[in-house]
């Protein structure tokens, strides 16, 4: 017989949402909370350099699931689907950019029939989660657990400073605070980095004091197979080793890839897909049909020898609108970083101007490859399925290249490496973008929120799975639509918000 542990709440996944929920739900000393994390559950001071060092992005094989998409049929190549396998999840391996979603993002959620998620609803929660010493009090919190620090021009490398100044010279406004009243323009960006250390949610929310709470258990190296049901009532979690953990409420926070995979293995998903895999259907639900991801293209420049400086790695961004953006939408990013192998540059140094369409219209998908919990799911981003996404990416890359040709940035550059000076016609540029497109590591919306009348939605506005009892999903997978910013801070906010409701 498997061992049985009884808890009031079991949270599956200790990432950007799960660590927040574990902290907030265990504040009630009478509530027994279990957090299970498939990767290592380091204490706040024991995270290795590959995770804690903000200049190292993407983790390593020991802290990633190794997922890749199945996009070769459409794009000609698959795309890495980064998924942190460590306490802190994606927040432990990302570039630590701490930019909120905008009011227009939440207006789109509301337009889909989702209640309680207007910008007026969420701004107080954004403020409450952060401790930020700068910026306007109307927009910022000072005492929350999550540190957000505005990077300054002086902290950036000379070429990153030149990127900002060249973007201004190319006609973009200087933004003082992307988490303030105005976002259209260019600036160094805010990060959850303190003294060079990426502060992930495992560090910020699961401090030693929190982990000493007698009613909170954090279990590392505990990988979930499936949800245990009694009828349609969730009563526990089965681990891949066979052990069953029982709980009064089950919350999946395993991320945009993990949460839908666990649900489908448990019998919640598209019934035809589940029957193909001989999985008994508990709830026929449209899981995995509205997956979103930001497409990312790297416009890379070799730095002149006298301008070679690549630390700190992350630094500044252009956030603006394409010619096809809706009212008050900012659907383009050009993100300046030094996240590039210097050995690949002919001069030994490089800067990347990474271009993205932040409001893509193409829908991806996620399905199970098999019932085996160790099998990588079938993920498709379907980049450029909607032609407007490619048109707008072309606008982003042309803007990036225009900045690249503008002083003082152009004075720092030896040569354009990608796409390269020979790629100057629209047809050849489109071809280069399609052949080299990557993902921004911002997947969302595989288990989307929606009204009871929305046939494409899976959970309600509090993350409760429709058709099941005592089962919630709380992570980026429940976003009704992708937001136009990096997703991490918005995911943290969602966990804060829902922790107050459930």
Q: What distinguishing features does this structure have?
A:
single chain, about 500 residues, alpha/beta, 7-stranded mixed sheet, 7-stranded antiparallel sheet, 13 helices, 24 strands
Query: Strand tally, please?
Result: 24
Distance between the termini: 32 Å
Briefly note the structural class of the backbone.
alpha/beta
The coarse overall form would be globular
- Strand percentage lies at 15-25%
Number of helices: 13
Keywords: FAD, Flavoprotein
Protein name: Dehydrogenase
Domain Glucose-methanol-choline oxidoreductase N-terminal: 84-107, 255-269
Cofactor: FAD
Summarize this structure briefly.
By secondary structure, this protein is of the alpha/beta class. It is built from 13 helices and 24 strands. Helix 1 (18-25) packs parallel to helix 13 (488-501) and helix 5 (119-129) crosses helix 13 (488-501).
Structural overview:
Its cofactor is FAD. InterPro entries: FAD/NAD-bd_sf, GMC_OxRdtase, GMC_OxRdtase_N, GMC_OxRtase_C. Keywords: FAD, Flavoprotein. By secondary structure, this protein is of the alpha/beta class. It contains 13 helices and 24 strands. The two termini are 32 Å apart.
Spell out the blueprint of helices and strands:
Blueprint: E1 4-12, H1 18-25, E2 33-36, H2 49-52, H3 72-75, H4 103-111, H5 119-129, E3 130-131, E4 146-147, E5 149-150, H6 158-169, E6 185-188, E7 190-191, E8 193-194, E9 197-198, H7 201-205, H8 208-211, E10 216-219, E11 224-230, E12 233-239, E13 244-252, H9 255-265, E14 268-269, H10 271-276, E15 283-284, E16 295-303, E17 314-320, E18 332-337, E19 350-357, E20 365-367, E21 378-380, H11 387-404, E22 413-418, H12 426-436, E23 438-439, E24 471-473, H13 488-501
Domain Glucose-methanol-choline oxidoreductase N-terminal: 84-107, 255-269
Keywords: FAD, Flavoprotein
Family: Belongs to the GMC oxidoreductase family.
